[in-house]
Design a protein that fits this description.
With 180 residues, this protein is an alpha+beta fold. The chain has 2 domains: 2-130, no CATH class; 142-180, no CATH class. 17% of the residues lie in helices and 36% in strands. It has helices spanning 6-14, 119-130, 169-178; strands at residues 2-4, 26-31, 37-40, 43-49, 53-61, 64-78, 85-99, 112-113, 116-118. The strands form 2 sheets. Strands 2, 3, 4, 5, 6 and 7 form a 6-stranded antiparallel sheet that branches. It starts with a strand and ends with a helix. 12% of the residues are buried.
């Protein structure tokens, strides 16, 4: 969804308001999140629930706005051990300043074109920062077998899971030399 802020800036100029805090113009917008999946380098997570979010946009000077609001999503994120999708609530607060001046056209301009803000681009980095560091389906998740790939939460496998201690490999070599 896009938010057109040109009317907000016109109201600010019309009422002779400037960058001081007295009499700034602000407006609340109910936004619908257009993304169905959250795609990034590590994968693609399906967005299962995306209730509308309210963002408050306040003009804080000539060609500058402050955007704030709370957003909640539910993402289907794979478990880090067994790779089964887990519905995880992701809640975060948007609290950012956007400068529309042409001299300062850095990161702010990647989310805006003219006075139109692309809310999906605005929320992308916020979602990325709010993702959990570790996602488990349960604390006692057994994961998947290293050899056959069976989900050990569903069924056991008969694979040999013995992993020898690499520090003992020298002793193993000594015994194998004596047995020859």
């Amino acid at each position: 969804m896009n938010i057109d802020l040109s009317e907000l800036f016109q109201n600010n100029v019309r009422h002779n308001r400037n960058s001081d805090n007295a009499g700034t113009v602000s407006k609340s917008y109910m936004i619908a999140i257009d993304m169905d999946t959250f795609d990034f380098k590590l994968g693609s997570y399906r967005i299962k629930e995306k209730p509308p979010a309210e963002l408050k946009v306040t003009v804080c000077g000539r060609n500058k706005v402050h955007i704030e609001g709370d957003v909640s999503l539910v993402l289907a994120i794979p478990c880090d051990r067994c790779l089964e999708p887990v519905d995880r609530a992701v809640n975060f607060r948007v609290d950012t300043d956007v400068d529309f001046d042409t001299e300062n056209s850095g990161d702010d301009m990647s989310i805006a074109e003219g006075y139109v803000i692309d809310t999906d681009k605005l929320l992308y980095s916020e979602i990325l920062m709010a993702l959990p560091m570790k996602n488990l389906c349960s604390e006692d998740c057994r994961g998947i077998c290293r050899k056959c790939g069976t989900n050990l939460n569903r069924q056991p496998c008969d694979c040999d899971t013995f992993v020898p201690d690499p520090r003992m490999s020298v002793i193993k070599d000594i015994f194998s030399n004596f047995s020859k």
